[in-house]
């Protein structure tokens, strides 16, 4: 499956292990047994088992690569726009919903390696998982093929998202606040409805409420989860 995803990325990996790591969800990261015939450790003891790394480190790299290549593309495409307008465009293009859509279109869910239990729960199709894996794949692409390979993929995969909006999008929280004010409603209220995960990798679920309507967002920080909650609610509100 990783070979077919190479074709989607438009790059033949010199280090296939990088792509394998990018497509490995943390639930599937597991110990590798020693190869058949390999001697055990001293006094016949077991050798140390290496672990298959998950895609979290590559996601960290890919996030930065995406930001750079996207900022470069925006500055080139919109030479008359100022920082604020470009910033809003960038925030939209690297948002979780857009990343998840790009990942789905690319067929990433089918290539992603998750544990059997998580696979049954449909984890590979979750927006957060798809977005993270896409950034990891971009990180692997950059490390193996350099910035040109990463740039070429970004410009192909994000073409529709880049061209769909003629005007800079509004920040979702700002747009939601303006919507409420126009209708004489109280300002949106954001509440952390759940927090899970270890301290170094927390997961926040935030609920936003305006009047009788509500939306929910899940991310690794409260701020990001609030944005996603606002996007979710605003997208479902009447104009």
Key features of this structure:
239 residues; mainly alpha; Ribonuclease iii, N-terminal Endonuclease Domain, Chain A; Double Stranded RNA Binding Domain; 2 domains; three-stranded antiparallel beta sheet; two-stranded antiparallel sheet; 11 helices; 54% helix; globular
Question: How would you characterize this protein structure?
Answer:
Helix content is 54%, strand content 11%. The protein is mainly alpha-helical and 239 residues long. It has two domains: 2-32 and 52-163, Orthogonal Bundle (Ribonuclease iii, N-terminal Endonuclease Domain, Chain A); 172-235, Double Stranded RNA Binding Domain (2-Layer Sandwich), CATH 3.30.160. The strands form two sheets. A three-stranded antiparallel β-sheet has the order 3-4-5. The longest helix has 31 residues, at 127-157. The radius of gyration is 21 Å and the shape is globular.
Structural class assignment: mainly alpha
What's the CATH topology label of the largest domain? Answer: Ribonuclease iii, N-terminal Endonuclease Domain, Chain A
Largest sheet: 3 strands, antiparallel
- N-to-C series of helices and strands: HHEEHHHHHHHHEEEH
Termini gap: 43 Å
Beta-strand segment tally: 5
CATH superfamily of the largest domain: Ribonuclease III domain
| Structural domain count | 2
Overall geometric form:
globular
Low-confidence stretches: 31-49
Number of helices: 11
Average pLDDT reading: 86
Approximate strand percentage: 5-15%
Instruction: Please report the first level of CATH classification, the CATH class of the largest domain.
Output: Mainly Alpha
The CATH architecture of the largest domain comes to Orthogonal Bundle
Strand order of the largest sheet: 3-4-5
């Amino acid at each position: 499956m990783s070979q077919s995803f190479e074709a989607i990325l438009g790059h033949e990996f010199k280090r296939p292990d990088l792509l394998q790591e990018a497509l490995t969800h943390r639930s599937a990261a597991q110990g590798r047994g020693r190869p058949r015939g390999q001697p055990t450790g001293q006094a016949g003891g077991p050798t140390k088992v290496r672990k298959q790394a998950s895609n979290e480190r590559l996601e960290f790299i890919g996030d930065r690569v995406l930001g750079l290549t996207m900022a470069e593309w925006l500055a080139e495409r919109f030479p008359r726009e100022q920082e604020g307008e470009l910033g809003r465009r960038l925030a939209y293009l690297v948002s979780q919903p857009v990343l998840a859509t790009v990942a789905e279109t690319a067929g990433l869910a089918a290539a992603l390696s998750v544990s059997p239990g998580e696979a049954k729960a449909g984890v590979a199709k979750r927006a957060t998982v798809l977005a993270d894996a896409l950034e990891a794949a971009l990180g692997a692409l950059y490390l193996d093929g350099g910035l040109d390979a990463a740039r070429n993929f970004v410009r192909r995969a994000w073409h529709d998202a880049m061209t769909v909006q003629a005007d800079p999008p509004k920040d979702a929280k700002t747009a939601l606040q303006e919507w409420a004010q126009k209708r004489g409603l109280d300002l949106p209220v954001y509440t952390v409805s759940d927090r899970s995960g270890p301290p170094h990798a927390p997961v926040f679920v935030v609920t936003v409420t305006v009047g009788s309507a509500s939306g929910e967002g899940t991310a690794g920080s409260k701020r990001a989860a609030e944005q996603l909650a606002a996007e979710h609610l605003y997208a479902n509100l009447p104009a």
